[in-house]
Design a protein that fits this description.
Helix content is 48%, strand content 17%. The strands form three sheets. It has a four-stranded mixed sheet with strand order 2-1-3-4, with helices on one face. Helix 4 packs parallel to helix 6 and helix 12 packs across helix 13. The protein is elongated and about 95 Å long. The N and C termini lie far apart (87 Å). 32% of the residues are buried. The model has no long low-confidence stretch (mean pLDDT 89).
Length: 388
């Protein structure tokens, strides 16, 4: 019977091998079992067909004949029990290897995931710095304990086992943070796991999904979440991609700042790597959307929100609010707010002067505007008066 596992169609880890299907792929590669992979979008993961396999709507799942399994620990344990290569034959050594499997997912992984989640969704909170220090120390304490137990050995308990497979994959998530590098024996331990031919094949399989389908699949996943969040058929909105968990907060800030604005709805979901959301809102009568779903894309000045105000006072009010608390002034009425979104804020008189039918007026207005950061209409009017 053919083994079929499920994996992300658009993996939030961008092909880095951190998604949990990598563990299952690796285990199957270690025992030499062929398998097929069924790719799922975020929306498909919440459909009845997949929920029948995984009641929590996540990946991976494992199917073989009439058997359906979820949770990577259970799947890897099943593979190791059924096929030689991942558990020792000695009963006591076998039990210890299984204990290390449980230790990886029950004792070591939770504080690592809590740290990752805090960085993603709590970085804007006033207590974030103190909490991160606490979480870093909690992770370090776990690593110290593993480091002491591993010592100078290659593996946790004799030969490589399913316990090492699970532990190596859990620890991989710490590599970008630099914490793992503080423990030379653990860094070497993870590197040994990654050097195994079976791991390399599993990693290549997961990376191929990202390499071959990244642009198409990410757009598809985004589109599905947008469709699900919208309340109107054929609703057209400008969508801004956020990656730090502050999308709903930003939308509320914008709506409080710009008259004629309101937050319409917030749809929260789990993208497999943590909390994500879609926020629909109207900004000065224009429909917008913030999709907050991870580190796939960055906000740039290539997209900006343009606000034409009635007068200088209103421009100043909006400008100072947007540049406060980490916002940055740019040039010619442009700025970047605390969330990284670019704006153009200017009084409508600027448009009248820079697009004036008198070429001397428009040139003088444009030349003065180019010298400014926040638009100062009085200075532009003075420059125009000097040439007329």
């Amino acid at each position: 019977m053919t083994i079929t596992i499920t994996a992300f169609e658009a993996s939030p880890d961008r092909g880095q091998g951190l998604a949990r299907d990598t563990r299952v792929r690796w285990a199957l590669e270690e025992v030499g079992q062929p398998y097929e992979v069924r790719l799922l979008s975020f929306l498909a993961m919440k459909e009845p067909a997949h929920l029948a396999l995984h009641p929590f709507g996540q990946i991976p799942t494992y199917e073989e004949g009439d058997l359906g399994l979820f949770e990577t620990g259970a799947i890897v344990f099943h593979i190791a029990e059924r096929h030689a290569g991942l558990l020792p034959s000695n009963a006591n050594a076998r039990a210890r290897a299984i204990a290390w499997m449980f230790a990886a997912v029950n004792t070591v992984e939770p504080p690592i995931l809590e740290l990752a989640t805090a960085k993603l969704v709590e970085s804007d909170k006033p207590w974030s710095e103190e909490r991160l220090l606490l979480l870093h120390e909690r992770v370090r304490n776990r690593l110290k304990q593993i480091s002491v137990r591993l010592g100078g050995a290659d593996w946790l308990d004799g030969a490589f086992s399913a316990g090492d497979l699970m532990m190596v994959h859990v620890l991989q998530r710490l590599k970008p943070s630099g914490i793992l590098g503080e423990f030379s024996n653990l860094s070497a331990y993870v590197a040994r796991g990654e050097a195994r031919p079976a791991y390399k094949r599993a990693f290549a399989g997961q990376l191929a999904v990202f390499t071959n389908k990244n642009a198409e699949s990410v757009r598809s996943a985004v589109h599905e979440q947008i469709i699900r969040s919208n309340t109107m058929t054929n609703s057209i909105r400008t969508c801004l991609w956020f990656k730090d968990g502050r999308g709903p907060e930003a939308a509320a800030f914008y709506c409080a700042l710009i008259p004629g604005s309101r937050v319409e709805r917030i749809f929260r979901f789990d993208n497999g790597m943590g909390a994500a959301s879609v926020t629909d809102f109207t900004l000065g009568g224009a429909p917008y959307q913030i999709l907050d779903a991870g580190p796939h894309f960055d906000l740039t000045e290539a997209v900006s929100i343009s606000v034409e105000t009635d007068d200088q006072a209103e421009s100043d009010r909006i400008w100072y609010a947007l540049t406060a608390d980490g916002g940055k002034e740019s040039a010619c009425g442009w700025l970047k707010d605390r969330y990284g979104v670019s704006w153009q804020v200017y009084p409508k008189r600027l448009t009248e002067l820079t697009m004036h039918s008198n070429e001397a007026v428009s040139k003088a207005a444009m030349a003065e505007m180019m010298k400014q950061k926040k638009i100062d209409i009085a200075a532009i009017e003075a420059a125009v008066k000097a040439v007329t």
